[in-house]
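Question (not urgent): is this output format expected?
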Amino acid sequence: MILSGAHVVTSLSPVRVVREDVHVPDGRVAEEGGRERRDCSGCLVVPGNVCAHTHLYSALARGMPYSLDPPRNFVEILQRVWWRLDRALDEEGVRASALVGGMEALLSGTTTLVDHHASPNAIDGSLDVIADALGTLGVRSVLCYETSDRDGPERAQAGIDENVRFAERAGRGDTPLARALVGAHASFTLSDETLTACAEAAQRLGIGIHVHAAEDEADERDALALHGMRVASRLAKAGALDERTLLAHGVHLDEEEIALVHEARASIAHNARSNMSNSIGRAPVSALGAHVALGTDGIGSDMFEESRTAFFRLREDDLDAGPGWALDRLAEGARLAARAFGEPQLGQVVPGAPADLVVLDYASPAPLHEGSFAGHWIFGLSSRHVRDVMVGGEWVVLDRRLTRADQQELAGAARAEAERLWRRLDEIEAHEFEPKGGRPWPSPLRVA
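Got this back:
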């Protein structure tokens, strides 16, 4: 394949823009080669986006009916919404969620998903279901199961076992487009024994832990009340904080915790829209530094929209922040995926890199070059410009249509599965688990 006639953004951080053909002779970008030519005149070619933290199982929750008392704080959102939804999931629901979530990711220019999965009544083999569904579409993924004690010790052990089993499968090369992390929910739903077991499994497998950290104040209060230390200190003590660790959110990390995270060189997935939706506060992204990537926490996989929202949220507090900040964060997500796949050039369009790229049909109304590209990203580009998507050298979207599946059929099947899921949800009460350090006081959360 030869992509001709486009401006090519070979790197997001630092920004590099060239005007040359992209050669993809065998799944990778090369200096020359390829036979079939794809006309990309007037287009932009950019690296495929990476969503550094999502929950694909939430894909069928859009517009989901709600009949319980409105939640007054973050823990009640978990108890009354998400911890009911995940218990309603079976294998078919997991598959449908992954398929429709993967479809929407590709159509919005996201080629890699870092997913954090939970289905307490369908744990065994759930990561295989997700990997196979995403692989069918051609989506690259980094998967884990959300280990937690909230549903009892047997399910906690089953979560660890699922993480280990899938990681061993991925390590054998049985999942070409999927890799593994060890998943853990959050400190306040993890006993010392379970947290230690997760850390030991990750160390034994040579992979990182993907864990929610200080998303809400309840997580920190619980850690202080039960363990006499804050969340990051507890993770570090358990051996769960190192350069392979991916912390989701980090909204309430204090200065000492941030110093621990920096020392460990751990990564943080910032989820601006989710933080705003749950009214949990503002993540200290400036203080968190260079190892901040962007995720959606399950609010789709559109990284154009997520990066724009995160940037504008930051600008409210820091007028010194420029639009290049968003590109740096997206590039950090690509580096996360690159480490997981052992592909240092993943996230770039340079010779030797896996050919994960997006063709944007963008008629630029102003000069586009290395100095202006970040401004185009924030103030002009969006997922509506996505025309074609390539993963591993294969077109998975052409002319805004999936190449491996019928997107109308996928959407129709998802609607039918969502109706079945919602009916099961009616029979599930609010979860009884709460932080052992005491119930959190009500937050100013408002639910429409």
